[in-house]
Amino acid sequence: MNSISTKNAIVYFNSEVYTEINKYIETTKPSKIFILVDTNTHDACLPNFLGQIESGNIEIEVMEMPNGEEHKTIDICTGVWEALSEYNADRKSLLINLGGGVVTDLGGFVASTYMRGISYINVPTSLLAMVDASVGGKTGVDLGALKNQIGVINEGEMVAIDTSFLDTLPSKEMVSGFAEMLKHGLIFDKNYWNTLTHLEALDISDLDQLIYDSVVIKNKVVTSDPTEQGLRKILNFGHTLGHAIESYFLENADKTPLLHGEAIAIGMLLEAYLSTKTCGLSNEELEIITNGILKTFTKVKITENDQKAIINLLKYDKKNSHGVVKFVLLEAIGQPKIDCVVSNELITEAFINYNN
């Protein structure tokens, strides 16, 4: 599987991963290597990873953070910064982020800000991180329950995707990552969408190629618009409402928190409906999208009170401008439209349609 060149880095796959990491270490000779893991990847992924890393005489320190979106916070960043300082990390140190989207987002942010920036490598271990979180240089943490409010765009030295780590992943996490792959089809490639929604015709061995195809799609978008001034916004389809739903379910004790992909699946269903009302998406394609997503994702009950609170959270979305909420919607499958404005009444109508 060929590597993929991004704007400032390279994405390597499987057989190339450890060769390239070891080559990078030998060439750049970092003063020290730090590996950030969470409680899950510490046990499930770290032993295999360390067994294939050739560091020579360079010291390796492992730093562990709690797993879960609720720990993607500045407080955890502070703990990692302090650990780096305590272990005498300098500007020639290397941070390797071995984990899912929380680890790669937070670790990338820590590296980008420690001593005004040290080198980092992302080694994504979840499907979500492989196809989305580790590619494109977005780093950051949540502000309370508000998703990714604090961060910078700064690519690491490389992304190293070893799909064997997926063997350690619970099925629920695999499903969560699949939502981002579906999104890539909806915003960029109808044929890819069709392939993903007919997986019964595929073998599990096809997954590597599908992951590769998703990375190619995301890379094409972010390479043409690295700082999200225009085209890169299309990657937010399903995320305007999806992030608000994820935040609401995360901060309410009487709700069961949703995984990122579960919330984004709901967001895509809602925003597909909005697309039929404002962008000309046909009812036929709405039905195709709805059926395609509900093949994999179970609907979640969202009450009228929930809806009001979720709509209120939209004001914090990062795409907003001058107090106006901006959506990414679809004119057709594979044809997104950015900067769409939608009334709260229409959003409520979308929720009613979803519940029915």
From TrEMBL:
Domain (3-dehydroquinate synthase C-terminal): residue spans on this chain: 177-320
Record carries keyword Metal-binding: yes
Domain 3-dehydroquinate synthase N-terminal per the UniProt entry, residue ranges: 63-175
Lineage: superkingdom: Bacteria
PANTHER family recorded: 3-DEHYDROQUINATE SYNTHASE
Cited function: Catalyzes the conversion of 3-deoxy-D-arabino-heptulosonate 7-phosphate (DAHP) to dehydroquinate (DHQ).
Protein name from the UniProt record: 3-dehydroquinate synthase
Gene: aroB
